Amino acid sequence: MAARRIKPSRYISVDIEADGPIPGPYSMLSIGAAVAGVQDGDGFTAADPEEHTFYRELRPIGEEFVPEALAVSGLDRELLKAEGSEPAVALAEFSAWVREVSAGAQPVMCGYPASYDWTFLYWYLIRFTGASPFGHSGCLDMKTLYATKAGLPLRAVAKGTMPRELLSRRRHTHHALDDAVEQAELFANLMEWQGPGSPR
């Protein structure tokens, strides 16, 4: 029997900044993405995370916001109302970029933690473009990846518990593109790390 051909996965680190806890009542204000690497049947190959990137700032979709969440982003809602990209345009451009950088591979979104960013990203993609280039499940959580490789309970994991050599040397700035690039480096390090919980 012939071996089944495995289609490669193209891992794309995504970070978003938003003005509240959930999409719909609250808005995604910016999105940053960086190609982290590719995995095929022979293993994982890291990418230069600054080579293929995407960044947009978006017009808010409503008037509600949580001041503390907005403060973390450092973004100006009033300025974004006037100058931010229309969400439908920005998300269509993002989808086209994902398809372009993933040619020949299946795109997988990765984040730390992925749950918050994926919630906004998937909702916005479906709401404004009708489809997701990642499908409904092409999402990988770096926190879970580390917990599995380290042999730790998920809720015991934080970046401060990780070996220093796994962490990016870049600062976490809460600028979506900066953080996507930082996370892409963390992801590549995690993929190449043989932690104590990894199968031998």
Structural description of this entry:
The chain is of the alpha/beta class and 200 residues long. The protein has a single domain (9-192), classed as Ribonuclease H-like superfamily/Ribonuclease H (Nucleotidyltransferase, domain 5, 2-Layer Sandwich). The protein is built from six helices and six strands; from the N terminus they run ββββαααβαβαα. Strands 1, 2, 3, 4, 5 and 6 form a six-stranded mixed sheet that branches. α5 (142-150) runs parallel beside α6. The chain is globular, with a radius of gyration of 17 Å. The two termini are 27 Å apart. 38% of the residues are buried.
Secondary structure blueprint with pairings:
Blueprint: E1 9-18, E2 28-40, E3 43-46, E4 53-57, H1 67-73, H2 77-83, H3 87-101, E5 106-111, H4 114-129, E6 139-141, H5 142-150, H6 176-192
Parallel strand pairs: 1-5, 5-6
Antiparallel strand pairs: 1-2, 2-3, 2-4
Spell out the key features of this protein.
about 35% helix, about 200 residues, 6 strands, alpha/beta, 6 helices, Nucleotidyltransferase, domain 5
Radius of gyration: 17 Å
| CATH architectural type | 2-Layer Sandwich
Count of DSSP strands: 6
Structural domain count:
1
Largest sheet descriptor? 6 strands, mixed
- The CATH topology, please? Nucleotidyltransferase, domain 5
Shape from CA axes?
Answer: globular
- Count of alpha/pi helices: 6
Task: Determine the N-to-C terminus distance.
Answer: 27 Å
State the CATH class: Alpha Beta
Helix content: 25-40%
- Mean pLDDT, all residues: 94
